[in-house]
């Protein structure tokens, strides 16, 4: 056999061997500097546990604009990675105008996103359908970020795709869901005002209200309630208005000592906007919930005063008439609608822009060697305090003395965690609880100095999404969308953190830098790069050709 023939056979055998091995060995290298195509360990763990076929239908087939084509490509890359980890996962892109009827789209509540293009308005359906066994659900492939305009959502969603898909995959594949309970026997927020928060929580947790103290007409927790409360992994008290009894506090203390997590959304001053709109002014009365000693045990005190902020949310008010005789409306800064911004670094607030409060109270942190405090949300630096038993007048919108707002940032939401010790450890009440526990390891408690932070507004008898501000709507523009804040995301993050879902919080907070083209530089350097792309390949081929000629002449000289 000739040497050249033998060499050719060796090369062919090597190529065949590589082809065969590639069927069994697969490895991708992520060369991006932000590792955007490397899945988190949390994602990999969840995907590996999927033991039944998971089918994903993405409604981004057909004609798309530039941003949505990019989004489609990123989704394709992501789902390819999912499929490589678990072959039980499959996906396809469907054209909603061909593969679904209008009735099917409307039945599933899939509203199109109108995207303006040079050829007119293009209706895009940014949704995906997940099918897992007998379970089926829909998800949005766009982030729900009230700080972004509609045109920015597609581009911003590319860095959140892993979280968006994994949040819904976790939801549809999970077997054991944790339990979240609401206390309601202190005249907390009514159901219609808790619709937004409750529905959002129910996506990932079993949510229920604890009504036993109301059913037995005692309106207080008893020793027998402690075992029932242990069923809940976390308890929430959303804007209580009636005082907590000593029995309440004893049971809640032992609930925490037995590993339960709690979140108090409470305030110590009674002031409501409905009353102000009726009379133009109110007296802000103090509200004693008898919680001072309970919260003091965790190094937290809520001061009975109202925070005012120059960078507060705005309120739309009628302030006269137009030249045409119509009512004139304008937006004014209402210093009592303070906005909370992230303070101490924490996964809960890393992706939060601002949270809207109504008549929030200042908070004070007290030293406790066993407890670590993190200020989750605080005001802007331009603040002052309004004491209780003082007038709150709507006329203040036009009468603000900026020199008074010099108190700096004031805490509005605090996380306490550490080794909690019972406030009853040295008191006789401990004898009322069998198997009394005097301390707990890894305790977690969140206190927010305003109950309205969890209250969704109601418009025309229907609950609005939590965070949407009905006071930002102009009556002369009924099609205008309300200003939206991050109340819902913040509260969901709080519950996730309390229940140990920090891995998902980190995934939610993951940031990828999607580089944008510099249009100006592109126009200036366009000709240069065209010439480089035209000449460089030909030059390389010419150099290789000359090299081959030189090599052959030298070899056969």
TrEMBL record:
Q: Which residues cross the membrane?
A: 531-551
Provide the DUF7088 domain boundaries. 34-129
User: What keywords are assigned to this protein?
Assistant: Membrane, Transmembrane, Transmembrane helix
Instruction: Extract the Pfam families matched here.
Output: ABC_transp_aux (PF09822), DUF7088 (PF23357)
ABC-type uncharacterised transport system domain location is 177-494
Q: What NCBIfam families does this protein's entry cite?
A: GldG (TIGR03521)
Task: Tell me what this protein is called.
Answer: Gliding motility-associated ABC transporter substrate-binding protein GldG
* Species name: Moheibacter lacus
């Amino acid at each position: 056999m000739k040497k050249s023939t033998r060499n050719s056979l060796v090369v062919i055998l090597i190529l065949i061997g590589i082809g065969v091995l590639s069927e069994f060995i697969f490895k991708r290298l992520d060369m991006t500097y932000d590792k955007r195509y490397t899945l988190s360990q949390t994602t990999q763990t969840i995907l590996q546990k999927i033991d039944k076929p998971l089918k994903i239908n993405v409604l981004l087939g057909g004609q798309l604009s530039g941003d949505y084509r990019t989004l489609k490509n990123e989704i394709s890359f992501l789902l390819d990675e999912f499929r490589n980890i678990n072959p039980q996962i499959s996906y396809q892109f469907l054209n909603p105008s061909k593969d679904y009827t209008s009735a099917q789209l409307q039945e599933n509540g899939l509203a199109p996103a109108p995207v303006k293009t040079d050829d007119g308005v293009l209706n895009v359906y940014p949704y995906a359908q997940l099918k897992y066994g007998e379970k089926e659900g829909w998800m949005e492939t766009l982030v729900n970020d009230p700080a972004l305009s509609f045109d920015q959502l597609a581009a911003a969603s590319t860095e959140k795709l892993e979280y968006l898909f994994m949040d819904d995959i976790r939801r549809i594949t999970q077997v054991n869901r944790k339990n979240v309970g609401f206390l309601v026997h202190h005249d907390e927020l009514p159901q219609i005002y808790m619709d937004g928060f409750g529905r959002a929580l129910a996506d990932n947790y079993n949510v229920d209200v604890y009504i036993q103290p109301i059913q037995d007409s005692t309106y207080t927790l008893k020793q027998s309630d402690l075992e029932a409360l242990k069923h809940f992994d976390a308890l929430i008290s959303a804007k209580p208005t009636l005082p907590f009894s000593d029995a309440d506090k004893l049971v809640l203390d032992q609930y925490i000592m037995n590993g339960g997590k709690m979140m108090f959304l409470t305030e110590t001053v009674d002031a409501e906007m409905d009353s102000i709109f009726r009379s133009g002014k109110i007296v802000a009365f103090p509200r004693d919930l008898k919680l001072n000693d309970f919260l003091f045990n965790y190094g937290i005190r809520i001061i009975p005063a109202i925070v005012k902020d120059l960078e507060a949310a705005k309120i739309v008010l009628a302030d006269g008439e137009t030249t045409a005789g119509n009512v004139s409306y304008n937006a004014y800064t209402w210093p009592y609608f303070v906005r909370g911004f992230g303070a101490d670094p924490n996964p809960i607030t890393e992706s939060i822009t601002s949270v809207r409060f109504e008549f929030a109270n200042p908070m004070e942190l007290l030293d406790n060697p066993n407890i670590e405090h993190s200020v989750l949300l605080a005001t802007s630096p331009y603040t002052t305090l309004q004491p209780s038993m003082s007038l709150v007048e709507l006329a203040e919108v036009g009468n603000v003395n900026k020199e008074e707002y010099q108190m700096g940032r004031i805490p509005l939401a605090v996380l306490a965690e550490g080794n909690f010790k019972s406030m009853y450890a040295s008191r006789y009440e401990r004898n009322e609880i069998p198997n009394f526990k005097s301390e707990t390891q890894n305790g977690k408690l969140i206190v927010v100095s305003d109950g309205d932070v969890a209250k969704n507004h109601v418009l025309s008898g229907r609950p609005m999404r939590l965070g949407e501000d009905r006071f930002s709507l102009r009556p002369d523009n009924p099609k205008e969308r309300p200003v939206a804040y991050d109340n819902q995301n913040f509260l969901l993050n709080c519950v996730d953190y309390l229940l140990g879902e920090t891995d998902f919080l980190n995934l939610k907070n993951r940031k990828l830098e999607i580089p944008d083209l510099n249009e100006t530089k592109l126009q200036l350097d366009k000709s240069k790069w065209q010439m480089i792309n035209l000449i460089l390949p030909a030059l390389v081929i010419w150099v290789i050709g000359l090299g081959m000629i030189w090599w052959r002449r030298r070899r056969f000289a």
